Amino acid sequence: MRRRYLILAIQLVILVGVVLIWELGSRQPTDEEHFLVDPFIWSRPSRIFARVLEWLQDGIILNNVFITLYEALMSFVLGTAAGIAAGFILGRSDFWARVLNPYIQVVNALPRLVFTPIFFLIFGLDANSKIALGFSLVFFIVFFNAFQGVREVDRNVFNNARMLGAGERQMAWHVLLPSALSWILTSLHTSVGFAMVGAVVGEYLGSSRGLGHIIAQSEGNLDATGVWAGLAVLSVVVVMVELLVTQLERRLVRWKPQPAGDLLAA
Predict the structure, then answer these.
(1) Which residue range or ranges hold the ABC transmembrane type-1 domain (predicted)?
(2) One domain, residues 94 and 172
(3) pLDDT truncated to tens, each residue of the chain (266 aa)?
(4) Same domain for 10 and 130?
(5) Does one domain contain both 228 and 156?
(6) 109 and 78 within one domain
(7) Is 254 helix (H, G, I), strand (E, B) or coil?
(8) Other Cβ atoms closer than 10 A to 172
(9) 90 and 19 in one domain?
(10) 3-state SS of 187-226?
């Protein structure tokens, strides 16, 4: 426990140190026209903080945060559900796994940004196109983990359950799911991050709402303070989401033995 507080304290010291160096550097002139840290490009933490407070007072930022979170949540839920389902189906069918493997590998290798204009044409510039982009990012992460988890099931447990007369539903619920659960949970953190990426990038490329839209609008106006303020708000949102996912993971894997590294850190 003491080590955790020490790590948190060091993290806060690093954050405060970077902000102080940034603020002081943006105020320290090197000559009549230049500063140690160019405030036109990097702005200043004090200006960024003031801009965030201004957005909070106007109610602008909260509405846009909720929109981005909604898009990311839907991307995460739909992508996770579809990835688990596809992973279980192909994990149980070696024939179809071999047939579809080349197509899955090709689609997975394609940059998702290539599909963004297509999503805009199909779903428009509203939230659905951002959800589709996030879905395309989350799906493959969860799919490959679920597929591998099903393939890694203990054959002795599988055969014994079959001998005891377990049906397909019982096999999936009591044998395959516990085997794949660790693999699926491992992908949660990455999936949440990519869901946020899909939502923000989609908003950045074409939207009238969301954090990505605020960042893109500020960038178009050469407003470095607005860009960094948007990134600061996004960073806070990502940290909060990551903490929620960590708590969810801990609740779902209480049965799992605690790693030696966690025991040492406790």
Answers:
(1) 65-249
(2) yes
(3) 688 889 889 999 999 999 999 999 999 888 877 888 888 999 999 999 999 999 999 888 888 999 999 999 999 999 999 999 998 889 878 888 899 999 999 988 888 888 888 999 999 888 999 999 999 999 999 999 888 887 777 666 666 666 666 666 666 666 677 777 777 887 888 898 899 999 999 999 988 889 999 999 999 999 999 999 999 999 999 888 888 888 877 776 655 555 544 544 44
(4) no
(5) yes
(6) yes
(7) coil
(8) 15
(9) no
(10) HHHHHHHHHHHHHHHHHHHCCCCCHHHHHHHHHHCCCHHH
pTM (predicted TM-score): 0.83
Any idea which residue has 């393939």 for tokens? 151
The three state secondary structure string of 80-122 is HHHHHHHHHHHHHCHHHHHHHHHHHHHHHHCCHHHHHHHHHHH
Distance CA 108, CA 143 (A): 11
Q: Find out whether 39 and 26 touch, Cβ atoms under 8 Å.
A: yes
| One domain for residues 149 and 190 | yes
CA distances from 16 to 9, 13, 23, 133, 148 (A): 11, 5, 10, 35, 42
Q: Is 31 within the bounds of a domain?
A: yes
- Asked whether residue 47 is domain-assigned, the answer is no
Residues 130 and 252 in one domain: yes
Domain that holds residue 132: 54-265
Query: Counting Cβ atoms within 10 Å, is residue 15 exposed (0-12), middle (13-18) or buried (19+)?
Result: exposed
Which residue carries 């290539």 as its tokens?
114
Residue 153 identity: V
- Domain total for the chain? 2
Q: Answer for the pair 77, 245: CB distance below 8 angstroms, yes or no.
A: no
